[in-house]
Write a structure and sequence with these properties.
With about 110 residues, this protein is an all-alpha fold. The protein folds into 2 domains: about 50 residues, no CATH class; about 55 residues. It is about 55% helix and about 0% strand. Helix 3 crosses helix 4. The termini are far apart.
Length: about 110
Amino acid sequence: MDGTAHVPEDYKEIDFVCRREDGTLMRPSSIGTVCKIIAKKLPGFEGFHFHVLRHTYTTNLLSNGAMPKDVQELLGHSDVSTTMNIYAHATRESKKASVRLLDEMTG
């Protein structure tokens, strides 16, 4: 809304995650098509689909110090266990850090 019109009581602003250049919604089917093209053309992207980015987003936030409860709320999960058990993935760097921590603890 441009701010000049009366705002209805039930008005809810929507901020689309995937938008076209003009700000309109990009349909999930369009995004899926783009992902299929990427998966076919780029080595290492076999099986790539848009939802993979949600897992990457979660793992990157947590790896860089975000609090699990904050990430849960950003993703819209009702329970932090969904975030941690399904969307968070161990990284090579986090595994190395855990091994170093164990080495420090055991001397």
